[in-house]
Design brief:
Helix content is 63%, strand content 0%. The chain has helices spanning 24-34, 39-67, 72-83, 86-92. The longest helix has 29 residues, at 39-67.
Length: 93
């Protein structure tokens, strides 16, 4: 069975080589952080994080479609409780 016939979740499965085009500044910043040999692993992790963010955004959009958008004042009050920012809690309550 070929790898193309199997669905792998992000981060699983065999490694595959592709060609990626990045701006010089982005590539330089990555190499400064991880060195020349760490670029592929860095891009793999960045892609996984982006997939997680995209999936979360889709989940939030689906929730909002069913339940409507979140109450911004309630969110601010809960954020203040979680972070211990009492100055924000009074404004939002």
């Amino acid at each position: 069975m070929a790898d193309d016939d199997v669905d792998f979740p992000p981060g699983d499965g065999p490694a595959s080589g592709i060609s990626v085009t990045l701006t010089a500044g982005t590539l330089q910043a990555i190499r400064e952080r991880v060195g020349k040999r760490g670029v592929s692993a860095y891009l793999e992790k960045a892609a996984q994080r982006q997939i997680e963010r995209d999936s979360l955004n889709e989940l939030i959009a689906d929730f909002d479609e069913v339940h409507g958008p979140a109450d911004t004042e309630a969110v601010a009050a809960k954020r203040a409780r979680l972070t211990g920012d009492a100055s924000n809690a009074g404004a939002a309550a």
